[in-house]
Each structure stands twice: as C-alpha cells, then as structure tokens.
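quick one before i forget lol
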Amino acid sequence: METRPHVERSELRRWIGAAPDVSVATTLGEDTVRYPDGEVVDVARVRIACGRDEPTDAWVSGWLATKRGPSRLPPILVVPGGCGEADRTVAAWTAKACDACVLFVDWMGRGESSDLGLDPSTSGDAFRFGPDGPASSYQVHNLRAFDRAIGFLLGRPDVDGDRLAVVGTSWGGFYSLLVASLDSRVGFVSSAFGCGSWDVECFYLWRDAMEREGDGHMEAWLAAFDPARRAHDIAADVYFETATNDQYFALAAAMDTYARILAPKALHISHNQNHATRPFGNQAFRVVRSWQGPENATLLPRVGRPRLVGPTPRVEVVAPADAEVWIRYACGAAEGSSGSAWASARARREGGVWCAEPSLVDVGRPVRFYAQVVGRATGLSSCSPVERIAPREAGVRTPNARFEPRFTVPDLPAWELPVGDELHPAIDVRDEGGFRSIGFTFSGVEGTRGVLFCLEGDLLALAGVDALALRVRVPERAHLDGLVLLLVCDYQGRDEQCYGVRLADLGRTFDRFERCVVPFARFVPWRTRSDLFGRHRPRPLRVDRLDGVGFAYSGGAGAGVVRIAEVEVVRAGGARSVARPEEAAGGCLSG
C-alpha cells in the first residue's frame, strides 16, 4: 500500500517540544466514589503543565480516577470526543471496570484547561493555521497536552508504565491513533470511530472547513495530522471500532485507515448504526482490561477473510466452531454515502468453514460485505474488514432474489434497522394498529430529521417508478402541521439533497395508519440541519440517487411525533402501483 505524503514523526515531535523530566501538576479537588458492590475509586481533579517552553504557561485539566486495592495499576489515558470535556463519572467507571488508574483529560480550551484563544470546534480553529503552517495549529497544542498528560500518568509510583493504554471515541478515537503513532510508550490503543484517510472520504462539514481555508490547506493539514498517514508508525496493539453508517468517519475512510495499521490489530463493525456500537458499547473496555491483565490475553474471537463464491451467491469464512457468525452486506453503487441499508445472512458451519447465502438481485451490481463473529462464551465480537466486489467477478452467475421496492419493518430492535441521522430524533419500534412501525419523536428543534435509508435508487430508476407510497400515523393532531415528509438522495454524503412535502398538505389527519401515494414531482428541495451552511443549490430529484425516506420537524406545537409502517416506491396509477384508485386521487397529492 502506497505511503501518502506526511510530516515525519521527528518533525511533529519537534513541534510538540521536549517534555520536562518531572511534570508539574496541581490537584484542584479530591473525593471518593463508592459502588454498591463495595468497590471504591478515588477521584481527583488535576491540572498538568503543558506549555511548550515555559511549562506553566498552559495547563491541561482532567479527572484522575484510581481503583483502590490493586498495586501497580495499569494506566489508561482517555481522550474525549464531542465537545472535548472529560467526565468524572466515566473516569471513575473506567477505573473500576478496568482495575486501572485512569486519566480522562479535557482538550485545550475545554473544561478547566487553559484558554489559548483558539476555538477547537470544527467551525472555529480546529482546521486552521497561520503563516507558520501546521506547527502553529490548535492540533499541536492538543497533542502537546496529551503528551504531557501521559508523562504525568507514567510518573506516578502506583502505575505500571509497561501497560499504558490510550482510549478514545469519535474525535477522541482520532487523537488516540495519532498519539499512538507519535509515542512509543503506548502499548495498546482503542479507537472508536476516529479514523483518518479523509482524502478517501471526509464528512462534508470538515472538508468544507478545510477547503474554505484556501488552496492546498486540506492537503497540508492531512499531511500533518491524518492518523492514516502515520499509521505505519504505530507500534502498539490496536483495537478499532466503527459503524457502517457513521457519518463523521465514513466507512471507506475507516477501512483504509485500518488497512494501513501494521501492528497487531482487531476490528469491530456495527451494522446499520451511525455513531454507536450497540449491543457492544462496552466491549472496548473489556478488551483493554484483558490486554492489560497479567497474561496479556485477548478475548476476541478469530475471524478470517470472507470469500464470495458462485455459481449462486455464497460467502465462506473461517471462524471458531464455538461462535455465532453473520455475513453483513450492502448492495448497490451508493457506497459514497454514509447511509446504506445493511442486510444480514446468518452463517452455518459446513466442513470446517462457515457459509451463508446473501440475497442478491443482480450479479453485476457491487456488493460490500464483512463477517462478524461473536464468541458464545464471551459475547465479544470480531469482524473482518469490508470487502467489495461485483459478484460476477467472483464467479456468481445466478441471482438468488428478486427486487421488491417495498420495506416492511422487520421484527428487530431499532438499533439493527437502517435508521439514523447526525441529529436524529428518538427512535422506537412497536406493534400497534395491526402494523409494526418505526416511531420518530422530535424534541422541538427545528430542522432535525429522522431518515429510514431503505431505498435503492439505482434499481428504482430501472423500474421506472415515480411515486412514494407509505403508511403514516401522527398520534397528536397538534403535531401534524410541524412535520415534513422527506425523500433523501445521497444520504449523509457530500452531495446530499433533501426534498419535502408537508404532511398537513396531504389532506389526511393520520390519526390512524393511513396509506398515501405521493408522486415524486410534488417533493420540493427542503433544507434541514444537515445543510448548516447552505452548501447545495437546489437540484431536481434524481431517482437513481434516492436512498432515504423520513421526516423533518419544521416547528409547531411542542415536539412532533410520527410513525411510519410500510414503504413502497410505485408507478402512480400504473400497472405496478399497489395503491387503490381512491387512495391515489382522494386527499393525496397527485402529479
């Protein structure tokens, strides 16, 4: 794999500056957390000097949590994501769960860390640097703070410096990989969602922020700070988590970053999830604890590289006999979008390998797939990296399914369904009124939306459909005026476009599940909070780019609540339409 241009490790270390022999730290307060099972964690609020030339010119703050009982505790540095503030409760819980000494640090300019006059938000200074180049950027200040925090943590007499782990989620996962590439003291790194390879695919707000700084700025920033470009310098063992539809760190970029890590590594991928890993949310801490344990054991099951073989679709993978194995897969060309509907095929064991048959309707259409193995004894999950291939190239000659432009809510928990958004409303699944439905409960924030990405635009365009048919229920009449029915093209991708029509304009009360047919021609460009900077000029709806249907909240009386049961894409009034004539004409919009 080619090495992309990058700032050498020695140069980036020079920007950070040499750490002092002894860290200067201040304790701001101390207390104790006692758990019902009798275990005790001591917690202190600390500040650690992190100026470059004069250490006390700047401070990084954090929560230091120490599990009582064991001596020579393994140390864990936890880096937050999101707004960059450490959490006392999480620090204490992590120390208890991992039998460890945990330092959970704030970013610079967050919590009680020094205010350097720089805004770490993505709309502020996260991607900016001045005439001196990346050496003067906010990211260097943060990396220096984490470097000094590690020095403070390893300088404690009660820790075992040979077992240092760095853990982070989201931007914290990004930083954890970056820190591990720069610091050989790190023995284990757990990165959830954080990844690099932003020149492969980048969340549009971050790409826009970099590109607004001018020509060449994005490349200079990535050369300095993209973890994928520094992955070859990571010597620590790596545990990497992501989700198929995480819009902040896209799947293609995450897989490229993972492939570039040369150290021992393991992977978990959650299908149909955005920025979450249910039901494996605490798995990272179990993995860290097992690595830091006295036998340095791994509890994760082994998983081989899955193969797609023909002549009918079949995936084979090597995995332990004492496991449960699934093949997760998504079809179609819309892989540049973060929102894809991932299906599952449960594998069975045959002759020493696990086999599954994914449902494919077109052997020339690309399919992405990976194997997920869950150990029966541990309940922990390992996954293979995502493979991409046109089935015909793998010797598949015969499809084993037919295209049905219809989605009925399956009997699965909400987190397994292809539903989500960066600001999505609360979601639930239930049976009522004779239908299994997905409910979206909006909090009253105008412009938020919830999307079910169940449409396959490339197949819809071939089918010649021109209307959306669905069943909708709005339990409270007062909420109807504030709800907008949405169609989404290139969901969560950089070229995303939303098209909407107000539910109130459909002429129904929706106090029970009512089926309506709405021609595509009646949907108009609609701005949601996914388009914070008005990046897109309205364009006509392209059926071949459709991948989502959902709702947006546009204001009104209180929070909006809406439920969706069955979704179809049809020819309005044509032979393929399943709408009754009176439904197509009475009260519903017509073309």
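fyi DSSP finds ten helices and 30 strands in the chain.
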